[in-house]
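User: Can you recover a sequence for this backbone? Please restate the input before giving your answer.

Assistant: Of course. Working from this structure:
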């Protein structure tokens, strides 16, 4: 393709230039003699490129999704061999200390470092590494790089998949480079990192890594994986490892950099961090700091319900080796949409609402069961007619299909003196709600009666748990392994 053609294509993709004009110009340049063919061909190519030039969300995804090219099967094999490779070279204490030192240099909890950073590359790195990559690159030597090159050169037969992938991705002139640089192109192209759950949970300590495990992340939510154990002298294949093991024993996990952490990546989740208590609310509406009878709050008044904080109890919803727990919450409710039937009965519509955005929190927070600042609205106006609501939670995983679950909610409606409908404290019917979510696993749901929720705002209640927020002992509720509590604000409109 000539330079003029390349330039026009670039403009088309980046600026959304009118593709008919662009290609018409190109074809005039290339062939002035056959105008009929030019017009017909330009029309065909225009239709093709309209789709190519549309900047869909898929074209705006993170660098992670643009650069990863290995098939899922081959990637699994590649990461497994990489876990063996890394385990072997880290058996050298000097190399291991260098890697652990770089983890401490670039991550707050000394738990993670990208292969791009270790290999002195500017792609496939984490955002927090960008400011330090040049200092790293300026270093004359790297024990990690030298050890990687030696192991690949001396034991090539142990890494058949790595060898195959390198061969597939090699271009002209690449074959002459050393093995470490060849695999480095793949490691950074796939946006891989080295992660130590043990460091994040237990704190940084090089002396703890006299013996260690290696494995690779399961991105489909599978809670176990095979791996290797190294004691400095021998290596042992481990058929089954779980999150409890790698959190309690020094370990190195080959994992993909989350788009939120990838330099150039696009983040679509909200980070939940360990909580600090907010100051007490002093303005109207009135914060309910005691339990109430929901029958005393009719639909004419407003009850606004929020979830200030949540706590995820353990790693059972995480895939093996994951750096973050990712969650998606929904509320299901009857919401308006009432239809009166000919026989005098009514039909209502059940709807689902996502609570906030998708959320993630670091592994340390779920392992230590830290309370996390959530601060999301559950229901801006929990009417008396919304007799029960469904609270639903999914865990998010990259390699998972769409999942659906059908649940029901109850409503309470009665005719008033004017012939209309108003809320009643008692349930009079139910409605179906369908919850659908992609790339996830359905984890738990909880049916929440308004009567029960408002009667247990504070105190131990049936759960036997409370959380002190601003001097108020709020009742802690649970949905699966997630603990949470409500704050309700009451507004009298009568």
């Amino acid at each position: 393709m000539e330079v003029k053609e390349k330039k026009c294509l670039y403009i088309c993709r980046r600026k959304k230039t009118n593709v008919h004009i662009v290609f018409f110009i190109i074809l005039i340049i290339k062939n002035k003699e056959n105008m009929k063919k030019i017009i017909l061909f330009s029309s065909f190519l225009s239709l093709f490129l309209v789709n190519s030039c549309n900047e869909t969300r898929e074209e705006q995804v993170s660098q992670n999704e643009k650069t990863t090219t290995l098939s899922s099967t081959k990637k699994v094999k590649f990461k497994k061999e990489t876990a063996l490779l890394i385990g072997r070279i880290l058996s050298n204490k000097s190399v291991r200390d260098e890697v652990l030192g770089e983890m401490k240099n670039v991550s707050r909890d000394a738990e993670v470092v990208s292969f791009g950073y270790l290999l002195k590359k500017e792609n496939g790195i984490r955002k927090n590494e960008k400011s330090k990559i040049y200092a790293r690159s300026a270093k004359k030597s790297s024990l990690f790089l030298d050890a990687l090159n030696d192991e690949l050169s001396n034991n090539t037969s142990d890494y058949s998949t790595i060898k195959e992938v390198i061969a597939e991705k090699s271009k002209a002139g690449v074959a002459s480079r050393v093995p470490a640089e060849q695999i480095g192109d793949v490691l950074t192209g796939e946006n891989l990192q080295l992660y130590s759950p043990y460091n994040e949970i237990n704190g940084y300590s090089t002396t703890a890594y006299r013996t260690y495990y290696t494995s690779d992340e399961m991105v489909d939510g599978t809670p176990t994986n095979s791996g290797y154990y190294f004691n400095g002298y021998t290596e042992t294949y481990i058929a089954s490892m779980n999150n409890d093991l790698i959190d309690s024993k020094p370990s190195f996990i080959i994992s993909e950099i989350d788009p939120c952490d990838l330099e150039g990546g696009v983040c679509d989740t909200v980070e939940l961090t360990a909580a600090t208590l907010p100051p007490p609310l002093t303005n109207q509406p009135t914060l309910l700091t005691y339990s109430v009878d929901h029958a005393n709050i009719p639909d004419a008044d407003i009850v606004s319900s929020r979830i200030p904080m949540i706590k995820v109890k353990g790693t059972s919803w995480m895939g093996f080796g994951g750096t973050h727990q990712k969650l998606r919450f929904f509320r299901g409710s009857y919401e308006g949409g009432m239809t009166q039937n000919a026989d005098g009965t009514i039909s209502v519509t059940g709807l689902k609402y996502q609570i906030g955005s998708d959320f993630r929190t670091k592994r340390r927070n779920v392992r230590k069961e830290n309370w996390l600042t959530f601060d999301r609205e559950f229901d801006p106006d929990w009417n008396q007619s919304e007799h029960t609501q469904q609270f639903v939670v999914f865990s998010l995983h990259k390699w998972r299909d769409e999942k659906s679950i059908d649940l029901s909610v109850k409503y309470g409606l009665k005719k008033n003196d004017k012939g209309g409908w108003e809320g009643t404290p008692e349930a009079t019917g139910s409605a179906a709600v369908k919850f659908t979510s992609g790339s996830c696993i359905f984890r738990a749901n909880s049916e929440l009666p308004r009567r029960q929720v408002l009667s247990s705002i504070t105190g131990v209640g049936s759960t036997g748990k409370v959380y002190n927020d601003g001097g108020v002992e709020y009742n802690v509720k649970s949905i699966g392994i997630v603990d949470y509590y409500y704050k309700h604000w009451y507004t009298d409109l009568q």
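That completes the design. The radius of gyration is 29 Å.
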